Amino acid sequence: MLTMLYEGKAKKVFATNNPQEVIIYFKDDATAFNGEKKDVFFDKGRVNLAFTRYFFELLHSHNIKTHIVSFIDDVSLKAQKVNIIPLEVVVRNYAAGSICRRLGFQKGLEFTPPLCEFYLKDDSLGDPILCREHIRYMNIIEEKELTEIEQTALSINKALFEHMDSFGVTLADFKLEFGKTTEGEIILADEISPDTCRFWIKGTMESLDKDVYREEKGDLISSYKKLANILGIKL
What we know:
Elements: E1 4-7, E2 11-15, E3 21-26, E4 29-32, E5 37-40, H1 44-61, E6 68-71, E7 76-80, E8 83-84, E9 87-94, H2 98-103, E10 110-120, E11 129-130, H3 132-137, H4 143-165, E12 169-180, E13 186-189, E14 197-201, E15 206-207, H5 211-214, H6 220-231
Antiparallel strand pairs: 1-2, 2-3, 3-7, 4-5, 6-7, 8-12, 9-10, 9-12, 10-11, 12-13, 12-14, 14-15
Helix pairs in contact: 1-6
């Protein structure tokens, strides 16, 4: 029986016989508003792993290093064990969600160049937004490492935005998490899926992401599968 190391909102992490690797299992759970809203959707874990595989393989083709080692089955993958940096990195191409509530931006306002934000990964504090000085005083990572993460996030954004645009889908914004290997290298971790991104049908702002659940705009899994069909992802 596998030993569980950690359980988050959407995934479980298990130890393996190799201390440098873990197994990540994708759950069917959905949450919103820092866990205040919770539900379970049959097949969600399988669908999100399919998206994560699709997007991480795309990023590998752009020489972006990730924690992926291999894909085990429809709901789990093997990953390099990393120490997750307690920052959520959000790249915004268009205004939506929390930035509209915080600053009064109109939804759909374009950010040129894209906006990169940092949030403390701490549910008990509500994942507050951080400036670079906060990160320095909290001694989360060094300044040069933060710059590296920011540059990598913007490179990821360029690759994803151009790819999605070619399918008639707008990448409005997305969240990334990074981790440090035992050698101190910073690599992309976690997942990329409609759970962590805002995808709009180009020109309409029709959501094909977790906003469907947050805002009760329709069936979550049907929206995810519609996006998969657009991208040619076989589910």
